[in-house]
Amino acid sequence: MGLAADLSSQWIKVSEPIPHVLHVELSRKPVNAFPAEYWQAYGALFTRLAREGRDVRAAVVSSALPKLFTAGIDFASAADITQGGLSGVQQVDDARASLSLHGDIQEYQRAIGSPQLCHFPVIIAVHGLVLGLGVDFVSACDIRYAAETAQFSIKEVDIGLAADVGSLSFLPKVVGNHSMLHELAYSAKMFNAEDALRMGLISRVVPGGRDEVIHAALELAGIIATKSPIAVSGTKRILIHSRDHSVPENLDYVAAWNAAALRTQDIPEGLRASQEKRRASFAPLRKPTSKL
């Protein structure tokens, strides 16, 4: 069976346009607004990919809708979470309601941050409107491309809350202009792809719209998919650890990681391929499950 077998769901289409590369397309008309079932399916997809033995070496996340990435959370879903939580059950008192809501928020955070769990890089390619929750999606991915049409907003203050799913946690570690980040988070002002590039939120502005930015992201994913899975997965883990720890702590982590990882057969295979001027052939990180 193919790499993308059984991964698609109601609003998420998963395909394998390039060997070892998955394309995850978000498609809930008319504006990709996210009710609970939608973001839960997104989290379940990447959690499953992190657990299963599929030989995925890179993934691209995009919107299937031609004019925009997402308008953010579905307002009806947001109201449900604040009033009754994901279970919809009214609690006995405020303390119990708060504990229940705390758990719901953490579930939300885990779902949107689930690309961080994967051993492979996740590239997000956005176009058009990227509002509220869309910025959370972007900030939790490893590599971020935007079409020149992209327009962003950290929108949560406009509906009376501090962004709680990832933007305010990831972005201070991602962007280089904290003054600009504070300005945008407090005001919910729109900012464009060039602004996002200037502050460090994205690494590339792609001329054109949806098709062009997806093409660029898939091209990069195809390059990454030719590299050693041991090297790429280790690089991702070490970069994530470095983001959240001091330099001495990260150096210790790298030493421990590479004490095992340097024993890979990928190194001699990579050297032979370079000498023989051919593409290297690397084994999967894990044996696939019987379903694959």
From TrEMBL:
It holds the Pfam family ECH_1. SUPFAM superfamilies: ClpP/crotonase (SSF52096). InterPro entries: ClpP/crotonase-like_dom_sf, Ech1-like, Enoyl-CoA_hydra/iso, Enoyl-CoA_hydra_C. It comes from the Eukaryota. GO terms for biological process: fatty acid beta-oxidation. The keyword Isomerase applies. GO terms for cellular component: mitochondrion. Pathway: Lipid metabolism; fatty acid beta-oxidation. Residues 273-292 are annotated as: Disordered. One of its GO terms (molecular function) is delta(3,5)-delta(2,4)-dienoyl-CoA isomerase activity. Keywords: Fatty acid metabolism, Isomerase, Lipid metabolism. The keyword Lipid metabolism applies. Belongs to the enoyl-CoA hydratase/isomerase family. PANTHER family: DELTA(3,5)-DELTA(2,4)-DIENOYL-COA ISOMERASE, MITOCHONDRIAL, ENOYL-COA HYDRATASE. This is Delta-2 dienoyl-CoA isomerase.
